[in-house]
Amino acid sequence: MAKGNRVQVIECNLRASRTFPFVSKTLKHNFISLATRAMCGLKPKPYRISLLDIDYVCVKAPMSSFTRLRGADPTLDVEMSSTGEVACYGHRAYEVFLQALLAANFKLPEKNRSI
Asked: pTM for this structure?
């Protein structure tokens, strides 16, 4: 999540298989290729990226599938127990966040009721 040129951490347990494609698509640069070159001992050419040039919002939300996991505890903890993720892109933060929640089958609370 970024506001201006200030980035906030939204995920600490990175999974390269999910996060690299998301970040690559979001910033329009192939970070998988860049990392591969670095791991092979080749000199990677750094990308010039300015977060101020991004005119869209990107949200990645966990998708938990407790209904498919027999005996799973539906109470989430710090590990989130997600079995997948959804990524959504758009122009307004609230719209994209809501789109990600709905795509992950999150049940929205009813109006004037707590979760």
From this structure: 0.61
